[in-house]
Amino acid sequence: MAASLVALPPPVLTALLEGDLARARTVSGLPLPDFFLEEGWLWRLRLDQVRADPAAGPWIVRAVVVDHEVVGHAGFHGPPDEHGTVEVGYTVVPELRGRGHASAALQALLVRAAADPDVRVVRASVAPDNAASLAVVRRAGFRHVGEQEDEEDGLELVFEREVRAG
User: Fold this and answer.
1) In what side-by-side order are the strands of the sheet with 85-92?
2) Going from the N-terminus, what domains does the chain have, and what CATH number goes with each?
3) Rounded CA gap, 153 and 91, in Å?
4) Percent of the chain with pLDDT over 70
5) What is the predicted pLDDT for the residue at 166?
């Protein structure tokens, strides 16, 4: 199963923040799921991010589309850092989980990262009790490189995968 990543530009994020799913669907041209209205914290974070740094726009959140259905959202936390590292994030619509969509989204993110010559490493931070996401990153060839304490999410296991040698 292949997934496409379709940009969610600021007007779409704004519509979602305002609870206007119909407008978000019209502007994006996508059949965005109702679940996207529950992700306001993320739309606010990414909208503020792209307003502060327009160059981050191509890296941040996108809709994950499989067979013409939006199955979730995925993207990077931002552009590559000074070491050539990008961090992935992905979420699958709850009722569509367990069907391989997270793996397809992560694979699409890896392809996107590898296409940029500035990216050397892709990072994923996963809660230790998120068995499904741990399995996804391990199957994708990520290796456990450490732990970190996230102020919002608590303890996270950090995984990395090289996309090109540095």
Assistant:
1) 4-7, 62-66, 69-76, 85-92, 121-126, 154-162, 143-150
2) 4-162 (3.40.630.30)
3) 15
4) 99
5) 59
pLDDT reported for residue 1: 82
Report the chain's mean pLDDT, rounded to a whole number.
95
Determine if the pTM surpasses 0.90.
yes
Tokens at 13, concatenated: 């994020």
Please write down the HEC assignment for all residues of the chain: CCCEEEECCHHHHHHHHCCCHHHHHHHHCCCCCHHHHHHHHHHHHHHHHHHHCHHHCCCCCEEEEECCEEEEEEEECCCCCCCCEEEEEEEECHHHCCCCHHHHHHHHHHHHHHCCCCCCEEEEEECCCCHHHHHHHHHCCCEEEEEEEECCCEEEEEEEEECCCC
